[in-house]
Amino acid sequence: MNKVKLIFNTVAFVLCLSLPQWVLANAIVVLKVEQAIFATGKAIALGKSLSAKLEPQALRFDTIGKKLQATQQRMVADKDLMSSDEVQQLEADIQTLTIEFQQLQQYLKNAKAQAEQEFLASMRPALDKVLRQLIKANNISLIVNGQSVIYNSDAIDITPKVVELLNLEP
């Protein structure tokens, strides 16, 4: 009788230890926040708007890049045939183009980063609202940042659902 009782207690103990993990496993989800936010219709519209706004600078950047590359290639190919004054002038042109190229590159990078940060900040209240809805509706006890996860099943990734709900937000 004591053996049966011992086995029963052992099984009950193991089940008690395992049960909370089973319950929690259903309440743990993964979310890739930035991916979700930048997959929304608003983000796509922002990208198009930003591209249109920065188009003159982007075209200038491309033009300067091509001109810089052509000038550098000319320097390599014709350096031995040029006078020292021509070489100095070409080096000065390369330096001027390089500076302008880098400045435009930095400007475009900063403009994009600033627009992204402002967009993320503006989307935060909508994201918080959507997450509160999902947490309540699905009894979620833990949301893990998808950027920090090595592997997860698609079944626990709520990123597509968050995108869907964010697209419904005004």
Account of the protein in words:
The chain has helices spanning 2-27, 33-38, 41-53, 55-78, 84-138, 159-168, and strands at residues 28-31, 142-145. By secondary structure, it is mostly helical. The protein has a two-stranded parallel sheet. The longest helix has 55 residues, at 84-138. The protein has one domain: 2-Layer Sandwich (Protein Binding, DinI Protein, Chain A). Helices cover 79% and strands 5% of the residues.
Observed structural traits:
two-stranded parallel ribbon; 6 helices; single chain; 2 strands; Protein Binding, DinI Protein, Chain A; 170 residues; mainly alpha; 79% helix; elongated
Look at the helices and sheets and give the structural class: mainly alpha
Overall morphology: elongated
Mean pLDDT: 86
Rg: 29 Å
Provide the domain count.
1
Along the chain, the helix and strand elements come as HEHHHHEH
The neighbouring-strand order within the major sheet is 1-2
CATH class: Alpha Beta
Low-confidence stretches: 11-25
CATH architecture: 2-Layer Sandwich
What is the number of beta strands? Answer: 2
Chart the SSEs and their pairings.
Blueprint: H1 2-27, E1 28-31, H2 33-38, H3 41-53, H4 55-78, H5 84-138, E2 142-145, H6 159-168
Parallel strand pairs: 1-2
Helix pairs in contact: 4-5
How would you briefly describe this protein structure?
The chain has a single domain, classed as Protein Binding, DinI Protein, Chain A, CATH 3.30.910.
